[in-house]
Amino acid sequence: MAGNNRWQLVSMRDGFADSLAEAKDKLTALLGDTKSTAEQRAAQQTIVADLTDRLERANTEIDAFDKAAEAADKARHEQGIGKTELPENLRITQGYAALIRATMNKRPIGADIKDALLDDTSTTGGASFLPKTVSTQIIVEPLVKNPLRDHSTYTAIMNLEVPRLEFSLDDDDFIADGATAKEMKTKGSTVSFGRNKFKVFSEISETILNGSDVDLTSYVNRGLTSGLAAKEKKVAFTETPKTGEEHMSFYAESVKIKTIKSNTLFNAIRQAIADLDDDFEPEVCMRKSDYLEVVDTLANGNATLYAAPPESILGVPVFFCNQAVKPIVGDFRYSHFNYGPDITYDRDKDVKTGMNVFVITAYFDHQIKLASAFRIAEVASV
Length: 382
Description:
Radius of gyration: 25 Å
Oligomer: single chain
Shape: flat
CATH architecture of the largest domain: Alpha-Beta Complex
Strand content: 15-25%
Order of helices and strands: HHHHHHEEHEEHHEHEHHHEEEEEE
CATH class of the largest domain: Alpha Beta
Number of helices: 13
CATH topology of the largest domain: phage-related protein like fold
Number of strands: 12
Largest sheet: 5 strands, mixed
Structural class: alpha/beta
């Protein structure tokens, strides 16, 4: 597991934990089944022992990763955050913390804070907007809680327009027929992104607000990025989109993504992969529970399949999202999120809890640039 980042370690750990729980349940069932053989029980015990060992190793590496990160944060804080000779990332942390505290206390954002955040007032408008550097941290850096972040396209450009196809040739006869050509003719060759307004709230206690800069900035960022992730996943995977947000969902009828049905989920996914045009680079986004069901069906007591990477089972890369109620097969470069750079910030107070709230107002859009780049896999009803 060496060389993995924390997200990869946690993803593996969760996968081992889920597989181990199912393997234990199956072992219990075999032990209670008078018709089970000694060989079946021994094979299942081997699976349980192997998954237990993998889970323990993953937990050990995560603990070591967290301790190293905590030590690094402590060392940086003890350097004396705020000194002009500090590295840029530490100056930004100090400036971000100062911005939050000034906002919560209704104080103006001073020039020293803007300097620390490397703010370009000519593009952000000064104190009215979240400085460019902080905005980039919140919006552009990968989120661990939204799997699409590592697969879809993300930008932060005002009034963005992009080509529907990401490539072109001097002779485009190869798309003269088929689903892609029909879609290009119906929808046009370019995609224009709109502005859908929403707010994200991060509650801050007095203890956090008066704590260290590192703790304050990391706490607020976790709240804001979690809010953005929740919104992104909600609009992309909802089966009942809100009015005006229909185009953002993979499952919306108006988006017209083709559904491939078969007698099993495994067969439906494999047929969906085969149904895509060769120019697309397919991946599968699905619920972990659905994947484990596929593995259970294929394994039939074979312990090696439980430890095999998903790509070797389905033939293409796989990533998991609990909101993907039906597996989505496709080239996720054609799933594109765009944020408007004009993010504003404010403060509020939750009268029910007495907590202070740091608020950002953001604008974003999700465009599925080519429905023909995707398929939805579904088990056919009997």
